[in-house]
Design goal:
The complex is a heterodimer of chains A (about 400) and B (about 280). Chain A is α+β, with helices and mostly antiparallel strands and about 400 residues long. Chain A is built from eleven helices and 14 strands. Chain B has one domain: 3-Layer(aba) Sandwich (Rossmann fold), CATH 3.40.50. Chain B has seven helices and ten strands. The chains are: A alpha+beta (about 400), B alpha/beta (about 280). The site of magnesium ion has 4 residues of chain B, from helix 1.
Chain lengths: ~400, ~280
């Protein structure tokens, strides 16, 4: 076997060409990590399975409660339907909610959008996976907030006893909630009416979550709400709602993987081109190595290693570039507005995770191995005497 | 040039010979290279080039021989057959008792690595490796550890008088120095046979003489068998024997003598072919 240093030094021996090729790989790595980071951030706002007896009521046509709004009349009409479960005090389990996404300052000086959910007293009854684990639930009209376990400490002043600053007001943090890892844990909850005032929303609610008394009631409620001619609203079972959200993210994954593969193919051709040129210019050298007794396998391996070294250089450049970009984006722009129909109001930040970098690394390796295969194969198949004649 | 006879030359290969066969050169016949009725034809488009036609010759161990002849006469072709880089269209090449036709491609490569040292006209050093690593290159095909490979490479470089250039890359060395590095690479595995195709073809007069002198000393001091292709009339003073080729045929008898005479005349009469027994 030829030593690693042989392959690496040949990459270094033609700095311009190597750097150009590495830059192409780097750009693919940047695109790949940033897109994957985008989806990861999106996904983490969507993780939930939902309760089988819960219904999500939204304006017809919106498939995300961030993009929906509901009038007070519509809410009242829903609230007094039959078949809704009740709590110990016989109040219906109907939770009107308002979702806004203001910017929060993160601890490390960046800015991120956080999902702030305006709720009323019924919220904890309907979302019964949400528990207050520290402090207490917020009181209405008191300027209070509870923060999810995930948001706790991530943002400036998101701790119990501190005052959070977002929108136009200040909010006193009185509790911390957990929900078994679902997306509520990255939210901040405040009083719905206060939030509507603060956000100057014409309609107090973006949607309603309710708990049906039984599966049969759920179906009946769903049908009745959908059919009500007075309000353009519709009801979706919560599990289905989250499935749809997740599947749009999965579609995005497929799209991103598709883009990554296409970009990777392009970079692979770039790497192949460079390596073909290397084989061409080192034909006599390959002949010499074969003459000295190195096997075809050794030549193949040396050129594959060279191609991979090239793509790893690209990966290193790309990873550094992505990191710089993600820092810059979250610091100065606050994030990237995401325009897909499902996420009209979602603004997500790019967070570079190790998993995304890992994905990009795999892609870079594939680019190197794939792009290097043709040239390495050609090098390995050169007949020594003919290669030597081209000295 | 470094004084060779004083240098210890501990370049023994590790034991385990992967090609057990008849012991190399039984004393009574004393033949290292036996070329039997060898022809080599190349296809070039529709017609065939007869690069070698029915050539037979024997070379004894410890001899320094030259193949000479006009351009295109088949010298390189013959040499490539001797070194196992190429295979004859007809006939048989036996080196140190091993019939090369019995080995497949990878076995032949391994055989070359173990038994043949190669020297080229254009040195063919690896540009990205320094002198020591270039010389140590063939040792990568052995089981020797890195320290031992370096030690042997340094010894080989001492033999050629270049142990002060260990860390120099080829492009920082003169032509003569590069060829000496290449010679060190050819002897580092302590091969039975050294094969050199026009080793002085790209060197000036002074370096050509030095290289020929070095090869001569390899034979005298270490008993190496050297087969060299050359156009260089100076070579006549250094070699034991010359084989003349013309149009793919080996010249014999009066034809060979006439060819030798022509070369002596070209050299201005100083050279004396076959001066050594
Ligand atoms: N791979 C090949 N394919 C086709 N023809 C070849 C090949 N190698 C050599 N020949 C031909 O065979 C003949 C002998 O070539 P060879 O290289 O052995 O000559 P040479 O004596 O070494 O010449 P020179 O002194 O120019 O190096 C030439 O006519 C050459 O063109
Ligand atoms: Mg030749």
């Amino acid at each position: 076997m030829l030593p690693l240093s042989y392959s690496v030094r040949n990459v270094v021996a033609r700095p311009t060409r190597s750097l150009m090729t590495a830059l192409v790989v780097a750009l693919v790595v940047v695109a790949c990590t940033l897109l994957l980071g985008l989806i990861s951030s999106l996904k983490h706002t969507l993780v939930s399975t939902g309760h089988p007896l819960n219904l999500v009521v939204m304006r017809k046509g919106s498939d995300n409660d961030g993009s929906s709004q509901i009038t007070l009349e519509a809410f009242q009409s829903i609230r007094f339907q039959d078949g809704i479960a009740r709590d110990a005090e016989e109040r219906p389990l109907v939770s009107p909610e308002l979702v806004v996404q203001p910017f929060f300052r993160t601890r490390d000086g960046g800015r991120e959008n956080v999902l702030v959910r305006g709720v009323e007293a019924a919220a904890l009854g309907v979302h019964d996976d949400v528990r207050i684990v520290e402090g207490r639930m917020l009181r209405p009209s008191a300027g209070e907030a509870v923060v999810g376990r995930g948001a706790l400490g991530r943002y400036a002043d998101a701790t119990v006893g501190s005052e959070l600053e977002f929108g136009r007001g200040r909010w006193k943090v009185v509790g911390v909630m957990e929900s078994g890892g679902s997306s509520f844990e990255s939210e901040v909850w405040v009083d719905a009416r206060e939030l509507a005032n603060d956000a100057r929303r014409p309609f107090p609610y973006s949607g309603v979550r309710l708990r049906a008394a039984s599966a049969a009631d759920l179906e009946r409620l769903e049908r009745r709400i959908d059919a009500d001619p007075r309000f353009a609203i519709e009801a979706v079972p919560e599990p289905e709602y989250y499935r749809k959200q997740a599947s749009s993210a999965n579609t995005l994954y497929v799209i991103v993987i598709g883009i990554a593969v296409l970009a990777g193919l392009g970079a692979g051709f770039g790497a192949a081109n460079t390596m073909y040129a290397a084989v061409q210019s080192r034909t006599a050298e390959i002949g010499t190595l074969r003459a000295l007794g190195f096997s075809r396998g050794a030549i193949l391996a040396a050129f594959e290693v060279e191609a991979v070294a090239l793509s790893l250089l690209g990966f290193a450049l790309g990873a550094a570039l992505s990191w710089l970009l993600s820092v810059a984006l979250s610091r100065w722009l606050g994030g990237i507005a995401f325009g897909a129909s499902t996420f009209t109001t979602n603004v997500v930040t790019l967070r570079l995770s190790l998993a995304d970098l890992g994905g990009a690394l795999l892609l870079a390796l594939a680019v190197g191995l794939g792009g290097g295969l043709g040239p390495a194969w050609r090098a390995a198949r050169l007949r020594p005497i003919e290669a030597l004649r081209r000295a | 040039m470094a004084p060779l006879r004083g240098v210890r030359y501990p370049l023994r290969m590790p034991p385990a010979d992967p090609f057990p066969g008849p012991p190399p050169s039984a004393p009574e016949e004393a033949t290292l290279i036996d070329i039997r009725h060898v022809s080599r034809r190349y296809r070039r488009g529709v017609d065939e080039v007869h690069a070698l036609e029915d050539v037979s010759l024997r070379i004894s161990p410890g001899r320094f021989v030259a193949f000479m002849g006009p351009s295109g006469s088949g010298k390189s072709t013959l040499m490539n057959l001797v070194s196992g880089l190429d295979r004859p269209s007809e006939g048989e090449v036996v080196v140190a008792g091993q019939s090369l036709g019995d080995l497949d491609e990878d076995e032949l490569a391994a055989w070359r690595a173990r038994h043949v040292g190669l020297i080229f006209q254009f040195f063919n050093l690896i540009p990205v490796l320094d002198a020591r690593d270039n010389v140590a290159l063939p040792l990568l095909l052995t089981e020797l550890g890195k320290a031992e490979r370096h030690r042997r490479a340094e010894t080989a470089l001492r033999v050629v008088g270049l142990d002060h250039r260990l860390d120099h890359r080829p492009n920082t060395l003169s032509g003569g120095e590069q060829q000496r590095v290449a010679i060190a690479r050819a002897i580092v595995t302590d091969p039975d046979l050294i094969v050199a195709d026009e080793p002085t073809g790209d060197l000036d007069a002074k370096n050509a003489e030095a290289t020929l002198g070095l090869l001569r000393e390899l034979t005298d001091a270490f008993g190496k068998t050297i087969v060299m292709v050359t156009h260089d009339p100076r070579a006549l003073r250094f070699v034991d024997e010359v084989f003349h080729l013309d149009k793919g045929l080996l010249l014999e008898g009066s034809d060979a003598e006439r060819a030798s005479e022509a070369i002596r005349l070209a050299a201005g009469g100083h050279a004396s072919a076959g001066a050594r027994p």
